[in-house]
Amino acid sequence: MAVRAEDKKQETLQGVYDRIGQRVGPPQADLLKTFAGLLFDNVSADDVVVRDPEHIYGLTLSVWQHARKRAADQGNVRAYTPVAAQHGWRAGHTIVEVVIDDKPFIVDSLRGELERRGSTVHLVIHPVLWIKRDADGLIETVLPATASEAERGDAITESVVLFEINEITAQDELDELGRAVRSVLDDVGLAVADWSAMREKAQQAIQPMKQLPASLSPEEVSEADAFLQWMRDDNFTFIGYREHGYVVTDADVRIDVWPETGLGILRDSDRLVFKGARNMASNASDVHSFLTAPQVIEVNKGGSRSTIHRTVYMDVIGVKVFDDQGQVTGERVFVGLFTSSAYSQSPRRIPFLRRKVSDVIKRGGLAPRGHAAKALTHILDSYPRDELFQIGLDDLQRIAFGVLRLQDRNRVALFPRRDVYQRFVSVLVYVPKDRLDNRLTTHFGALLAKAYNGKVSDFFLALDEGRLARIHYIIGTEPDRALKEADDLELESQLIDAARTWSDKLREELVNTNGEERGLALHNRYGDGFPALYQSRFHVDVAVSDINDVEALLAARDDIRVNLHRPIEAPETQVYLKVYHKGGPITLAMVMPILDNAGVMVDSEVPFEITARGPEGSSETVFMHDFRMGRKDGEAIEFVKIRDAFQEMLTVVWSGLIEDDGFNRLVLGAALSWRQVVVLRAYAKYLQQIRLGYSQDLMIQTLARHPDCTAMLVDIFETQFDPDLPDDMRENRLEQCQQAFEAALELVSSLDEDTILRRFRNVISATLRTNHYQRDDHGGVKGYLSLKFDSQEINGLPAPKPWREIFVYSPRFEAVHLRGGPVARGGLRWSDRREDFRTEILGLVKAQMVKNAVIVPVGSKGGFVLKKPPPASAGRDAFLSEGIACYRIFMAGLLDITDNLIEGRVFPRDRVTRRDGDDPYLVVAADKGTATFSDFANEVSVQYGHWLGDAFASGGSVGYDHKKMGITARGAWESVKRHFRELGKNTQAEPFTVVGIGDMSGDVFGNGMLLSPHIKLIAAFNHLHIFVDPDPDPASSFAERQRLFALPRGGWQAYDTAKLSAGGMIFERSAKSLTLTPQIKALFGISQDRVSPIELMRAILLSQVELLWFGGIGTYIKSSSESHSDVGDKANDILRINADELRCGVIGEGANLGVTQAARIEASMRGVKLNTDAIDNSAGVDCSDHEVNIKILLADAEQRGDMTRKQRDQLLERMTDEVATLVLRDNYLQTQAISLAERQALSSFDQQVRFMTALEKTGQLDRAIEGLPDNDEIAARREGGDGLTRPELAVLLAYAKITLYEDILRSDLPDDPKLVEDLVTYFPTELRERYRDRIESHQLRREIIATSVTNSIVNRAGPTFIRRVMESSGMREDHIARAYIVARNAFGVRDLWRGIEALDTELSADAQMEMLLTVKATMEQLVGWFLNNARHPLDIADVIARFQPGVEALKDCLETALSAKGRQALARRRDKLVARGVPDSLSMACAQLPLIAAAPDLIRVSADQSAPISSVAMIYFGLGDRLGLNQLRAAAEGMKSETHWQRLATSAVVDDLFTQQSQLTTKVLPLLTGTDRAAADAAIEQWRDGRGAAMVRYESLLVEVQANPKPDLAMLAVALRQLRNLTAT
């Protein structure tokens, strides 16, 4: 490695040589190359190879130019920073260059000066060269130092020195540096020049020793002599010499320097040896004694640092001069530096020192070989050598024995010695090694400097094998400041206290605070656990507090703890926050946003790592972050008021229990608790969902700007719902809160802010219940908030407004549940629309209301959206797990504020203040994203003891599996079958083509495509694949679909391609392009060979096919007037088609939202057969409704011990098929009702418009939202002869049911005993037989009856029936319903319906519709009669009992009661039906309906006249024939009515004709003398003859009416008046 580096060095230098050869002309180039080689010869390869050859070239050339010319005996010095523009090269550092005659100490002296000035030396080059110069000082020859004498000739040695140091750019600094370098060189020159002379002076000082006064001991004289000789033996580097005399007076001591004696650096008589000595007069006696003491040699430290060799304080050796009387008169002074040998030798081998050591040992009187003597010897051997030279014997003895006494003590000790010249204090400090650190060393120095009023000039640390360390401090004087006396004992006490470690103090504080046992245990755990920075910043009492917090944190499950505090010196605007965290330090990125949202601004942050020692060497670490902060607005912080709340808020934010946003600043700004903030945050989130129109930031800003109003909003909330507030105080206090809030609003100047505050108050006031005051199972706060609203009271709520809604807020999710009424049901979906998921749910609940029109509960819908989903990298399972967890919390949030039922009694939930009535009914179901979640919901229901148990959520593992039953698809298939049947095709017997969306693994698509073996599925697609089978074989493709459906994941990729017809393929949707077969191209009319997947899927949607089946998620068809953004399904924008592009015949919407409502209407108007998704897939909700109500029924049986849960589950399974039959019956009847309404779309259009208008007036309908035509569209349709389409009629049908259900439920009709059968028939047969009594007491008895009656009326009589009859009769809805039930039951109409419907596929749809319309017309007539002629409210059972026998009697005698003409008309009606394939009995029953409609009149007359029904019938029907009443009625019924009023008038004529016929029957009946037809005719004629002129006028008018092909209403009115005349006579 070293060889390679050296090679690289030579390679680099060669680059320099090359540049010299190229750029410097000969002969100088050769000389320069030699110079360059010698310059870098001894430079480390590492220092060379890191530099570019160009850099080295510039450096070499610069040094050469500097060295090239030099005057003899002068040095060249330059300090500069190379700049390319000025010097031709750039170094990046400052260069110091010296060329001078070689002499000792040059390099280390210069380096010392540079380092003393704070410069960092990056490179040193210092070759010593033999250089020959000419007379002008120019270099002629350069030779290495190793050159031979012959080679050298007259060359001299020169030092070429170069330093690279930190860059200096200021020229004045460079100039100063140059002067300093020259000064050092001058000193070196002086010392070297006089070195021999100074050594000689030392020798000369030895000679007079022999003439010293006799008063000096021979030993001392001898020792002085030896010491001077020892100095000359290279143990002292001579730097300067001078002699001076002493002039001592009582007041002063003066030193007279003898200038001519100066050598070396002391040639300058002004240069002081003891620089810094002062105030000698104040200590004249001490100085005098010292100076005149009979001591030959004295050693001291000079007052300045050496500029030569080492930058330390110079050693000063004074050799005293005595006069003949033995008095000291002066001194020979040597200044220099002891060499390293002086420090490495034992003091017992150094003259002068050895005598000191010996004398101290002798004075101690210790046994020579004893332990103490040995210890003392060691102390003296290791004594600071410079100090040993200077110290006096007494001081040395004092200190040495003091140190000796420390040997067995682990304590701090102080041993000071003052310089006699008052320049410094030398202090030895002994300290236990385990306490020693840089901090303590520095602290000791500071204490000493302060005590002596000086500075730490130097300190030296010594460690040996003992327990104590020694620090030798030199405390020097500061300019113009004298050293002062110090109390050594007090100072030592301060050092002892300082040396007491922070840990020692902590132990003491812990014991004082916690007692000895606990305190010592805590100290053992934390004594070494706090870092030095912490110890320097905090007192131990603060640490005790922190230990308490750390202990609490480590014992808790949380990973964070906070402590808000304010030091006594902190201003009111400032607080400090300590954050303790387990597991690792907190990054600022983690905590700063939290604090920012809390409304504070951080000034500083200091982290600390605290370690808690555990058992067996284990440890735990807590990271503490100390923040200094204040409010952003600079306002004072009410510390005491907000401390606890602020701490709690930060903790729960960190834990994720609440969100980290700007609402948290309300803790500081409005003095709220974090839970109160959560309440406001939840309301804000709700306001955003209902489209308040203001951003969250503005809401936060408004609340923060008006803290009084904000606090009042919380007061209103708490007053409304605090369960501990007595009810008798609540209303009064609430009124006070509202008044105070109104007054505070007057001070709000901003309109936007005023609006925001009022909207907060509005939603709070509209809140009915909350779980805010509940606790979880552990007594803690729940991590979510439930709010129940009276939606009708919320201002600006988007239409339609639900009846009630519950908003569940959590940091993890948000959820909403919208209900259309007290008894409501609907699915809960997992939404992905975080910003407007309530809008999504609101759209769904509208459809759910329509869908639920067929079942007991009205519509509801709910949904939740995740706010903190796991990252995609966590995988789907993690995402699903979070969804399930949030769904469970959602369920809990709903049940928290839902009443419970126990044995028929309502029990509110614990700690819920109710501002509404009882509300125990809450059920849910699966929806998008929650298909498998019902069991989770039921688990929560059972945990809550909810009265519905596992009936809370239908479709769970114990219940009716919709996919297994295929119920949703089967319900939609009822629609498909009806559409095709009305088109003349039987889907169950004839093949038909289908395309669809979905695959066989899906519930709706998979089940749907198995509902007929004659399906020819030619194409379908899902999110992964596109399936195309151009000409499938129905049987084999059906079998393959069955196989796929049975697979766990039967996607199209699993389809056996061998079963595909010619040209069939299965494509990947992810492919860039698809290659089509000729068959596929022909199938879809595509001319290209290759298309994109999107193009192929669009072609499928646009294909000419019989059925388009929706079984997958997405909206694929919009109206031509809608934009894609109107649809709200961005994922399918590129695929979606317009309704006017459709070429399919029928659409089946097994899935939701496959088609927009506007597109449905447009498609229907273009001839496509379809309903709505709410109609088609309502079987799912219907099945769930049955499941819930059955479970409610059986729960009662379970509780009474009549069955076990296992038996219940087995019973549920046994009833599966019958439940499906009951459900599908509803689908059948609803689609039939739409078809009947469609048949009468034109004739009933005006009635439908009036119905819509009436609903709008009462706020029950919004036509725009429901897609129903506005007034302009209605006018256009009238003009074009168009009525409402099937999709529109479906909506109208639903609203008819919704409104009628509510009206019936409000009445006492559901309590009528006669309607128990409607209740019973809702349930499967086994339940009817086993549990009839419990069915009759079912919890939802009234609701089930109301639903059954509503469905029957609207399905059979049509959506406008109730409204129309109300307008004509003026009767209430429940009265009309009673009349309907009477007519239906008394006349056996159900048998007729069943008979007609049994002819599906056997009879044309047209024939069935006509028969059903006939029944409908008859029912309307019968209802009208009971409304007009019976007492109300009808006693249903009594009326049926009175009329039913008469109806049956009339049917039995009808043929004999009719005239020949009547019998002929009846036969014609019957034969027409028979000819169309209707069985004889049913044909007759239907043919009789126009006649049976008269039964009420006949039965009443029979009863009034006590006449047989047969007799009454003969007269009644005979009068009809004889007076042409049947013809008049037919004329009226056939009359075209343009307006509602015309229809009312026509209807009135018809009703009056029936009334007159009944009254005439009463007139004629007494004339009847026999029981046969002849007797009846005779009675009629007898009566006729008795009418005279009146009869002539009537018959004349009748002839005229009959002769007119289109009689008008006026003619009929005149005829009716003449008829009344007959009745009156």
Describe this protein's structure.
- With 1625 residues, this protein is α+β, with helices and mostly antiparallel strands.
- The protein contains 67 helices and 38 strands.
- Strands 20, 21, 22, 23, 24, 25 and 26 form a 7-stranded mixed sheet that branches. Strands 1, 2, 3, 4, 5 and 6 form a 6-stranded antiparallel sheet that branches. It has a 6-stranded mixed sheet with strand order 32-31-30-29-35-38, with helices on both faces.
- Helix 45 (1216-1239) packs parallel to helix 53 (1341-1357).
- 43% of the residues are buried.
- Residues 276-283 have low confidence and may be disordered.
How many β strands by DSSP? Answer: 38
Number of helices: 67
**Average pLDDT taken over every residue:** 90
Assembly annotation: single chain
Q: What is the rounded distance between the termini? A: 144 Å
Structural class: alpha+beta
Q: Which stretches are poorly predicted, pLDDT < 50 over at least 5 residues?
A: 276-283
Entry summary:
By secondary structure, this protein is an alpha+beta fold.
Any key phrases for this structure?
seven-stranded mixed beta sheet, six-stranded antiparallel beta sheet, 1625 residues, 67 helices, single chain, 38 strands, alpha+beta, elongated
SSE arrangement:
Layout: H1 2-23, H2 28-39, H3 45-49, H4 53-67, E1 76-80, H5 84-87, E2 94-101, H6 106-116, E3 121-125, E4 128-133, E5 139-144, H7 149-152, E6 156-165, H8 171-193, H9 195-206, H10 218-235, E7 236-248, E8 253-264, H11 284-292, E9 297-305, E10 313-322, E11 328-338, H12 340-344, H13 353-364, H14 371-381, H15 385-390, H16 393-405, E12 413-418, E13 424-432, H17 438-452, E14 455-463, E15 468-476, H18 488-499, H19 502-514, H20 516-526, H21 532-537, H22 540-555, E16 560-565, E17 574-582, H23 588-597, E18 600-613, E19 619-631, H24 639-655, H25 665-669, H26 674-689, H27 696-705, H28 707-721, H29 727-745, H30 751-765, E20 767-770, E21 785-789, E22 804-809, E23 813-819, E24 824-825, E25 828-831, H31 837-851, E26 858-866, H32 876-896, E27 900-902, E28 905-907, H33 934-943, H34 962-965, H35 967-983, E29 992-997, H36 1003-1008, E30 1015-1021, E31 1025-1028, H37 1034-1046, E32 1065-1068, E33 1074-1075, H38 1078-1084, E34 1090-1091, H39 1093-1101, E35 1107-1110, E36 1117-1118, H40 1124-1127, E37 1137-1138, E38 1146-1149, H41 1157-1165, H42 1173-1176, ...
Helix pairs in contact: 1-2, 1-4, 6-8, 9-10, 13-16, 14-16, 17-18, 19-20, 19-22, 26-30, 28-29, 28-30, 32-33, 35-43, 35-45, 43-45, 45-49, 45-53, 49-53, 55-57, 55-58, 56-57, 57-60, 58-61, 58-62, 59-60, 61-62, 61-64, 62-64, 62-65, 63-64, 64-67, 66-67
